[in-house]
């Protein structure tokens, strides 16, 4: 069988999908299993931020190459997942991914952005694609600010996102997230995959370890959390390291 037969099907849902919560539009794409149209399966879903950087080799800072990772995973028998890629807002990216007010970066529209995903995008995807719609099969993820807003989404909506893929989250810009993590009350089993590079910034790894310690403490207190922390000691804040981590995180979150 040719390797190309395992490639995910990349479908642009809409070039300018309306986001009324932000009075904006975004390109949204779906990466479907290679056999989606020849099967009758229903699939878990992962909503990923920064869609421009996920499978475009011409992206300015490089890409995660998730299409190639999904192809390799499919060859190993791990093809049953749908990825929804949501493009960021370019100049509005920081404000839209910021969960709280910041004196330098603005009001923080992160809550509006997440409400868009929950109230409009997820229902649309569940209506138009064969998805598994329950908590256990709905995940969210991203890197940097995309990781931060994904963490916030999971903490703020414990009945919606059963899986979180949090790569190199920009915790420095939203220190309130630590308090929110401490008060997090998962309603069902939450799976959280946290990744950090060891050479991202002076405070990045210490911040990630602080986040880890909060989750570990909650697990000791018998909160229903399954948590994994992955560190690449030589990792910097760049797409090529998130590219390497992506298939490992997918396997742990969805197929473990």
Topology:
Elements: E1 9-19, E2 24-32, E3 45-48, H1 66-75, E4 82-86, H2 93-97, H3 110-128, E5 138-143, H4 145-156, E6 163-167, H5 176-182, E7 190-197, H6 204-220, E8 225-232, H7 239-255
Protein name: Alpha/beta hydrolase
InterPro entries: AB_hydrolase_fold, Esterase-like, Mycobacterial_A85_antigen
GO molecular function: hydrolase activity
Describe the structure concisely for a colleague:
The protein has 256 residues and is an alpha/beta fold.
Please name the defining characteristics of this protein.
256 residues; alpha/beta; Rossmann fold; eight-stranded mixed beta sheet; 7 helices; 8 strands; Esterase-like; AB_hydrolase_fold
Characterization of the model:
This is Alpha/beta hydrolase. It is a single chain. This protein has 256 residues and is of the alpha/beta class. The protein has one domain: 3-Layer(aba) Sandwich (Rossmann fold). The protein is built from seven helices and eight strands. The chain has helices spanning 66-75, 93-97, 110-128, 145-156, 176-182, 204-220, 239-255, and strands at residues 9-19, 24-32, 45-48, 82-86, 138-143, 163-167, 190-197, 225-232. The protein has an eight-stranded mixed β-sheet with strand order 1-2-4-3-5-6-7-8, sandwiched between helices. Helix 1 (66-75) packs parallel to helix 7 (239-255). It is globular.
- CATH architecture assignment name: 3-Layer(aba) Sandwich
CATH-wise, what's the superfamily? Alpha/Beta hydrolase fold, catalytic domain
Q: What is the CATH topology classification name?
A: Rossmann fold
Task: Look at the helices and sheets and give the structural class.
Answer: alpha/beta
How many domains in all?
Answer: 1
For the largest beta-sheet, the strand count, sense and barrel status come to: 8 strands, mixed
Report the uncertain regions. none
Q: What share of residues is helical?
A: 25-40%
- Backbone CA Rg: 17 Å
**Strand percent estimate:** 15-25%
- The 3D shape can be described as globular
What is the number of E strands?
Answer: 8
Whole-Å distance between the termini? 26 Å
Order of SSEs? EEEHEHHEHEHEHEH
Biggest β-sheet: strands ordered side by side in the sheet: 1-2-4-3-5-6-7-8
The average pLDDT is 96
Q: Determine and state the CATH class.
A: Alpha Beta
- Summed up, the helix count is 7
């Amino acid at each position: 069988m040719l390797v190309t037969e395992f490639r995910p099907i990349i479908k642009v849902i809409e070039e300018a999908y309306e986001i009324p919560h932000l009075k904006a539009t975004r390109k949204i794409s779906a990466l479907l299993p290679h056999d989606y149209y020849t099967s009758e399966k229903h699939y878990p879903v992962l909503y990923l931020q920064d869609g421009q950087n996920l499978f475009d080799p011409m992206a300015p800072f490089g890409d995660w190459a998730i299409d190639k990772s999904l192809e390799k995973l499919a060859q190993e028998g791990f093809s049953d997942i749908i990825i929804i890629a949501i493009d960021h807002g370019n100049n509005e990216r920081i404000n839209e991914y910021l969960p709280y007010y910041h004196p330098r970066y603005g009001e923080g529209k992160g809550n509006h952005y997440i409400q868009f995903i929950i109230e409009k995008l997820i229902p649309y995807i569940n209506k138009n694609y064969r998805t598994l719609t329950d908590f256990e099969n709905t995940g969210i993820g991203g890197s940097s600010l995309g990781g931060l807003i994904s963490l916030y989404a999971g903490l703020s909506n414990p009945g919606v996102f059963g899986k979180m893929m949090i790569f190199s989250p920009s915790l420095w810009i939203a220190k309130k997230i630590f308090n929110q993590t401490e008060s997090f009350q998962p309603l069902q089993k939450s799976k959280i995959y946290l990744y950090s590079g060891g050479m991202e910034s002076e405070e990045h790894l210490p911040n990630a370890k602080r986040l880890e310690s909060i989750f570990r403490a909650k697990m000791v207190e018998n909160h229903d959390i399954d948590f994994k922390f992955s560190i690449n000691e030589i990792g910097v804040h760049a797409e090529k390291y998130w590219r390497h981590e992506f298939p490992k995180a997918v396997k742990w979150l969805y197929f473990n």
